[in-house]
Amino acid sequence: MDFFKSMMVAASGLKAQSGRMRVIAENIANADSTGKTPGADPYRRKIVSFGNELDRELGVETVRVKRPQLDKSPFQLKHMPGHPAADENGYVKMPNVNGLIEAMDMREAQRSYEANLNMIQTARRMVGQTIDLLRR
After folding, report:
1. Which of 15, 31, 102, 106 is most buried, judging by how many CB atoms fall within 10 Å of its CB?
2. Residue 39, by phi and psi: left (phi above 0), alpha (psi -120 to 50) or beta?
């Protein structure tokens, strides 16, 4: 097995999970972002998906983050009559961001990031041990 190729695949996984964590952080940061005018739509949650990409130079498939898609789930309505974005009945559209789901997604992304990092570290150790054996 080519250790360099293995490390490049794992590095693409690191980059992909890092991008996923950025989108999750944006969702969390905008969990309370409402519209500015009555009836205006608030922040809409973004969803990350992954795709394969062939690295022709190395001859391996790597992972990449596709363009984030908007979550089509409905907005929550919250009764806040004094809010500037309240409709005629006093309801404000709230973002479709669920903090618990975002926390779980973040945890999963973190674990995947750590797994890719461990793969790179293991491959580096194996290369080092191979070099040590060849020196003897």
Report:
1. 102
2. left
pTM of the prediction?
0.86
**pLDDT class of 1 with cuts at 50, 70, 90:** low
Query: What whole-number distance in Å separates Cα of residue 19 and Cα of residue 105?
Result: 13
Dihedral sign, CA of 79, 82, 88, 92? negative
Closest listed residue to residue 108, CA positions, set 17, 15, 14? 17
In angstroms, the Cα distances linking 55 to 6, 46, 49, 59, 63 are: 12, 27, 19, 6, 10
Structure tokens at 26: 């944006």
Helices within 1-136 (DSSP H only): 3-29, 99-135
Q: What does the chain come to in residues?
A: 136
